[in-house]
Amino acid sequence: MKVKYRVPATSANLGPGFDSLGLAIELFNYLEMEEIEQGLRITITGEGAGELPTNKSNLVFRAAMAVFKKANKYPSGLRIIQHNEIPLSRGLGSSSAAIVGGVLAANHLIGNPLSIVELLEIATKLEGHPDNVAPAFFGGFVASCLAENSVKYITAHPDNELQIVLAIPDFQLKTKASRSCLPKEVPLKDVVFNISRVACLVGALMKSEFHHLSWATEDRLHQQYRSSLIPGLQEVIQAAKRAGAIASVLSGAGPTMLALSEKDPENVGEAMRLAFKRFGVEAKIVCTKICNNGAKTIDSFS
Ligand code: HSE
């Protein structure tokens, strides 16, 4: 038995929705998993080749093992082939894509004993928070939260007129480092600032009233603190907006910057690239769209 999955990149937070909002993006990792007679063979091409482990510490393998353990059903051996287009440690959900692909493919391989909700919970436990994992499963825009031992989520698939522009710096930023510069406590007025914007942001996306996004994506909980690690963060946001973007935010824990635009994505991208360059950061521009499909099988062979 062999299965093949395609899993989208994701952008978490969308400005004020720290650890709770996320969007799936049309940029994909591909994963093939096959039961073999014995042992573990992992091959990786594309992003992370030569950098990601190909032994038992590989994240796809660890996610698969969590499923086999929960189902108490193990294959005799495993071959994993990863082709990655999502760059690593750039705030585009590469680890969530590995985890989500791993749990889905593993479950499929052993006859789908676990439900999607069980898989989501395994994946969230491995990742630590659901904001990248949930949109990688369901596609579109997802609001999610951790509640006791379960993950609650609400999905929406906004009208797909919005263009997504990514400015992906040529340096990596580990989520752990990007979280370590956040304060342990924040002023109540900043919390209120974010809560009010998150409420309006969700409403704007649900109703496809995108013009509200310019102010509804403002944030005071994480971006200002992270700008010490991402030279030009605020200037890239301003440059994207001046070039016609409706909104621009830090993607996840960074360092990628994301802009949402209804027109001229190339101009917006060029403005973001130049703004980063003024701060000595080389960035690759990718113009893409919201991915309204979550992770999906693209092949299975018995
Ligand atoms: N919400 C997370 C953060 C996303 O901003 O740190 C990265 O995993």
What does the model show?
The chain is of the alpha+beta class. It has two domains: 2-156 and 291-297, Ribosomal Protein S5, domain 2 (2-Layer Sandwich); 163-289, 2-Layer Sandwich (Alpha-Beta Plaits). Helix content is 35%, strand content 28%. It is built from ten helices and eleven strands. It has helices spanning 59-71, 94-109, 116-127, 130-138, 175-180, 188-206, 213-216, 223-226, 233-242, 265-278; strands at 2-12, 21-36, 39-46, 77-84, 141-147, 150-156, 163-169, 247-250, 257-261, 283-289, 296-301. The strands form two sheets. Strands 1, 2, 3, 4, 5, 6 and 11 form a seven-stranded mixed beta sheet that branches. It is globular and about 60 Å long. The mean pLDDT is 95. L-homoserine binds at residues 12-13, 18-19, 129, 131-132, 175, 178-179, 222, 252-253.
Topology, pairings included?
Layout: E1 2-12, E2 21-36, E3 39-46, H1 59-71, E4 77-84, H2 94-109, H3 116-127, H4 130-138, E5 141-147, E6 150-156, E7 163-169, H5 175-180, H6 188-206, H7 213-216, H8 223-226, H9 233-242, E8 247-250, E9 257-261, H10 265-278, E10 283-289, E11 296-301
Parallel strand pairs: 3-4
Antiparallel strand pairs: 1-2, 1-11, 2-4, 2-5, 5-6, 7-9, 7-10, 8-9
Helix pairs in contact: 1-2, 2-3, 2-4, 3-4, 9-10
The chain binds L-homoserine.
